[in-house]
Amino acid sequence: MKNSLKFAELGKEYYSKVKPEKLNNSHLVHINEELKNKLKLNLTKKELLGVCAGEESLV
Hints:
Layout: H1 33-38, H2 45-52
């Protein structure tokens, strides 16, 4: 899984890397497909859930 996050290209003063905490019994309630497409997030539902639940990373 690879995605381009343009803010990460701005430099370290604009973001910081943190280790997410995993969630238990997580599930998706709604996916805003329009926003997902604008952000160019080419993720399956399973991958998106993994990112939102702290189990996977976008980078």
